[in-house]
Amino acid sequence: MTFRKGQKVEVYRRSEDESWQGYMDRYVGLHGVVTDPDTVKNDPDALIEVTLDKEGTHRFPQDCLRALTD
């Protein structure tokens, strides 16, 4: 899936990516907005910058994110 800036997403599971850190488990289930989808590279392995509701901005592997629909 290709993420786009401003898209609403959920961190729906723990990532299998090596960049996932243990402290990130607390973000599973939270919603946010994509702030930097890294479309310049269009690399499916690239991290996606997401601003989470009340938790700040973080970079996540794509396999732990899913798009939300309103």
Structure notes:
With 70 residues, the protein is mainly beta. The chain has a single domain, classed as SH3 type barrels, CATH 2.30.30. It has no helices and five strands. The chain has a five-stranded antiparallel beta sheet with strand order 4-3-2-1-5, with no helix packed on it. The chain is globular, with a radius of gyration of 11 Å. The model has no long low-confidence stretch (mean pLDDT 88).
Which consecutive residue ranges, at least 5 long each, have pLDDT under 50? Answer: none
Strands across the major sheet, in which order? 4-3-2-1-5
> Average pLDDT, to the nearest integer?
88
Distance between the termini: 18 Å
Give the percentage of residues in beta strands. Answer: 25-35%
Question: How is the secondary structure organized here?
Answer:
Elements lengths: L7 E4 L19 E6 L11 E5 L3 E5 L4 E3 L3
Main features:
70 residues, mainly beta, SH3 type barrels, 5-stranded antiparallel sheet, 5 strands, 33% strand, globular
Give a short synopsis of this structure:
The chain is 0% helix and 33% strand. By secondary structure, the chain is mostly beta strands.
